[in-house]
Specification:
The chain has about 425 residues and is an alpha+beta fold. It contains 16 helices and eleven strands. The longest helix has 19 residues, at about 115-135.
Amino acid sequence: MNYTLSKLSNLLPLLTVPMPFLESVCVTVWVRVGSRYEDENQAGIAHFLEHMAFKGGKKYKNASIVASALESLGAQYNAATSREWTNFYVKVRKSDLSKAFDILSDMILYPRFRDEDIDKERNVIIEEIAMNEDSPSDKVGDIFMEKIYEGNSLGRDIAGYPKTVKKFVKNDFMKFRNKHYYANNMLITVAGGAKEIEVKKIAENYFGSLNSGNSQSFENFCPNQKKPRIALLHKKTEQAHIVLGFLGYPRWHQNRYAENLLATILGRGMSSRLFTEVREKRGLAYSVGSSVSRFTDVGLFETYVGVDPKNAIEVVKVILNEHKKLTETKDEISQKELSKAKEFVKGTLALSLEDSSSVNNFFGNRALFARTEKDIETPKEVFERLDQVTTDEIYQVAKDIFDINKITIAVVGPFESKSLFENAIISFL
């Protein structure tokens, strides 16, 4: 699977991925801005702004008209805000490519920001925040992020706080949008059955007038953790929800492939070490798994488990022990286990790339932050890099990341004190 990277007349990057066997095409517009670009008083504005795009623009004047225009095409559409990017996508039949650009450009370039729409969506977002508060499995992740990235905007909830969401007015959105939504801070990715020449002509027609601007930055995260951190939210729940983890590698770190395989061996899939030890051998939890997240300047390696509160400490000790064994190579990674992990990652990626919106996500996440075009890897290049990883590299990554003195644990459950978890950690120091 190959791509073509070009630029419109205003230097807005356009990445196209031909998938000629498809009758559909997906258009995704990316903006290099997310929640970490906000200050404390702006918390949640990037996410709120994403919502407002669907409330109407110059041509499609309100939410009903936008929805009707998209659904009359049978389109799949959505948007998302992360800590470092915002995106909007529309997936349609390839014959409707121009219409998809027409609707997307109107939403993104000409939002109306009517007071009545702002007030209605404000309530929707406050309800979204409340829903997250009532979901312990979601809330524990927010608590974990806040604790491990303490004092930095990276740790703040993407949706913001009710107190900030309640204050936003039209002028706030206009200022924030004008600061970040400009040609050289955006990217368009198009994957599917359309031809590059056609795509570029249509993209130029709808986005070629967008002005350029000056790059905006955020406060880099500076690690200063010297001892374990524990965050506990006391809540009467049937399950204890626990996330434990460590700072990981940033977006372009050379060890990112080995880190990915480490997470796979430890906690991805039903044959991973954590699933085997926690669920299959001991029957202590239904859900347990590890994941990796990467940002421009730092990363994250975390494990989530949902468990009966009476078994929480035992499960934490089992998880910590599996981490420790990988740092001391007590339980050697066999070539069979390494090979299985590589094929798991490659297979999961290959299957996801059968969908054009996932193809846009694959290339968009690389192209939007690429230092040079070499950073925009193809799936084949990713597979080749994974195949080159050795067990020694994985052990080294484990030793580098799994420093028990720098562990962070977040817990939501019916516990009165953090002491039980502190004691569990002490036994591994």
